[in-house]
Design brief:
The protein has eleven helices and five strands. The chain is an alpha/beta fold. The two termini are about 30 Å apart. The model has no long low-confidence stretch (mean pLDDT about 95).
């Protein structure tokens, strides 16, 4: 049985830093570390993801921003899923900072360059199909199970229980140590994941509480309460992971 790593790289969840750590162990040049993006249609996404892993027998570590759960089941290949979770409101502010600096004329960067963090978040919240600021993590985790198994919140929380590893951005070094231990137990002997920082959009010197307080100040009480309600599942999961 061959064992591979599949990094579900969620936007602004330390994924670039994690991929940098993986690439210190698996050569991108020789194809041991590979990356690819997939279509939004669920069945097509899952089929192409599975085929991608089959078609790259030299690869040991796969990374994608757009891969859907559940984890592919492939004969002769064991897939170890890796995903990181971040405080949802801090993640939104990081997404805003990143997109504000980004070039191009797509929706996110254009919006960020022309409004405040509160304006960015409130605009995206007003677009119900846009999940950037509305239970972003839960929306992705819920793809682990089909809709007959519960609503999005239920399925996301089921995924948290089912997945072998979920790192926490706020405990990044500690999470890497846990991931190292898991991967060594799965046959990746001598793997060393260094906590390098890549693609950091905001100050890392402030505490999470300080950053959240600064964000809250930019909202009216009604608007901030609406934001909290729109991210109830993500906040529940973050608290569980943070206290676990």
């Amino acid at each position: 049985m061959k064992t591979v790593i599949l990094h579900y790289h969620l936007f602004k969840n330390a994924g670039t830093s994690l991929d940098a750590a993986f690439k210190e162990n698996f050569s991108e040049k020789s194809g041991e570390w590979v990356t690819k993006e997939f279509p939004g249609h669920p069945a097509k996404n899952r089929n192409e993801l599975k085929q991608w892993i089959i078609d790259n027998p030299q690869a040991k570590c796969f990374s994608s921003h757009t891969a859907f759960f559940p984890v592919p089941q492939i004969e002769g290949i064991k897939v170890i899923p890796v995903v990181f979770f971040r405080h949802p409101i801090d993640r939104m502010a990081s997404a805003y900072s990143f997109e504000k600096k980004q070039g191009g004329h797509s929706f996110g960067p254009t919006l960020a360059r022309n409004t405040s963090v509160a304006g960015y978040i409130e605009t995206r919240l007003s677009m119900h199909a846009d999940r950037q600021c509305r239970d972003f993590h839960a929306n992705r985790l819920a793809t682990m199970f089909n809709e007959q198994q519960g609503d999005e919140s239920t399925r996301a929380k089921m995924a948290v229980e089912a997945l072998p590893f979920i790192g926490l951005v706020e405990k990044y070094s500690e999470s890497l140590a846990q991931l190292e231990s898991l991967l060594e137990s799965e046959g990746f002997e001598g793997i060393k994941l260094n906590p390098v920082e890549r693609n950091v959009s905001r100050s890392v010197t402030k505490t999470l509480d300080e950053k959240l307080a600064e964000i809250k100040e930019q909202f009216s009480e009604v608007a901030f309460n609406r934001l909290i309600e729109a991210n109830k599942t993500d906040l529940d999961i973050w608290k569980k992971l943070n206290n676990g």
